[in-house]
Amino acid sequence: QFNDFLNNKTFYVINSKSERNFPFTLIQQGYEFKKTDNTFKLADYFISQYQLVGKMKEIVYTPLQLNSATGVVLPDSTASFKQVLCSERNNPKAGFLSYGPYINLEKGSYEVIWSLRKDANMEGNLLNLDICFKDGTEIVNFISVMDTSLQENSFTKIALELNVDDPLNKYEFRAYNTGKAPISIESIKIVKKN
């Protein structure tokens, strides 16, 4: 069936929640599909069309595409997408600032790059980044981000390596705020190296 999608170069995704809940990019079996402007409503369901781009090279998750337990999306004129996913400025909470997107990746080597900024001058371990699957029970790479690794007025890129052996795993790229400082996420980029 998947080869039919590749031959047609187009497929449709059904969503019962909202027109806004469609991701801009989908990755299926190592192929990248981009959302077109063709989204419509049929009865109680929203349907969106996706067009084949080709083999995945990289994917960028913007603040609106990230899941968060402790953050909010706010406008930010200095950010690439003019918005950031950030923890509360005056009272940052410990917890997952971002998690998900639970995607399958084809076998190979990847680099996962977070673009981050600290929004107050605090010391110590501010954030933990990890790559995992099986709902966070299998962590494949991890880093503690110290205050000296992040700048207060500009975004810093922090990367972790990922080697995918099993394309059936659903990967997450998580940022856990320790609650010591407000943190902003500009984007998360996944780049296929080979």
Task: Please work out how many helical segments DSSP would assign.
Answer: 1
Helix content: under 10%
Task: Name the shape in a single word.
Answer: globular
Low-confidence stretches: none
Order of helical and strand elements: HEEEEEEEEEEEEEEE
Radius of gyration: 18 Å
Q: How is the biggest beta sheet arranged?
A: 6 strands, antiparallel
Number of strands: 15
Strand pairing plus helix content: what structural class?
mainly beta
Give the overall pLDDT as a whole number.
88
Q: How much β-strand is present in the residues? A: over 45%
End-to-end separation in angstroms reads 26 Å
Could you give a short description of this structure?
The chain has one helix at 2-8, and strands at residues 10-15, 25-28, 31-42, 45-55, 58-61, 71-75, 83-87, 95-98, 101-103, 108-118, 125-133, 138-146, 156-164, 171-177, 183-192.
Q: How is this structure best described in words?
A:
The protein is mainly beta and 194 residues long. 4% of the residues lie in helices and 56% in strands. The chain has one helix at residues 2-8; strands spanning 10-15, 25-28, 31-42, 45-55, 58-61, 71-75, 83-87, 95-98, 101-103, 108-118, 125-133, 138-146, 156-164, 171-177, 183-192. The strands form 3 sheets. Strands 5, 6, 7, 10, 13 and 15 form a 6-stranded antiparallel β-sheet that branches. Strands 8, 9, 11, 12 and 14 form a 5-stranded antiparallel β-sheet that branches. A hairpin with a 2-residue loop joins strand 2 and strand 3.
